[in-house]
Amino acid sequence: MNHRYVLSVLIADRVGILSAITSGVTDLGANIEGISQTVVQDYFTVIMTVAFPQAVGEEAIRNAIQSRFHKGEAAVLVRPYISRGRGPVEGDRYILTMSGKDRPGILKALTGYLADKKINVEDLFFRIVGEQVTHIGEVTVPAQLDLKQVQDELRAVMAPFALAIGLQHENLFRATNEVGAIRRLLRP
Amino acid sequence: MYRTEDILHTVRMLQQENLDLRTVTMGINLLDCAGRDGAAVMKAARAKIKRKAGALVRICDQLTTKYGLPIINKRIAVSPASQLLEGHTPKTALGLAQALDQAAAEVSVDLIGGFTALVHKGMTPGERLLIESLPQVLSRTQRLCASVNIGTTKAGMNVDAILLVSETLLKIAGATKEAHGFGCAKLVVFANAAEDNPFMAGAFLGAGEPECVINVGVSGPGVVKRAIERLVEQDPRCTLDEIAEEVKHTAFRVTRTGELIGREVAEMLGMQFGVLDLSLAPTPRVGDSVGEIYQAMGVKVVGAPGTTAAVALLNDAVKKGGAFASSSVGGLSGAFIPVMEDRVLAKAVADGTLTLDKLEAMTAVCSVGLDMILVPGDISSVSLSGIIMDEAAIGIYNQKTTAVRLIPAPGKKVGDKVDFGGLFGSGTVIPVDSSSGSADFVCHGGHIPAPIQSLRN
Question: Which residue of A has its CA nearest to B13?
Answer without folding.
Answer: A176
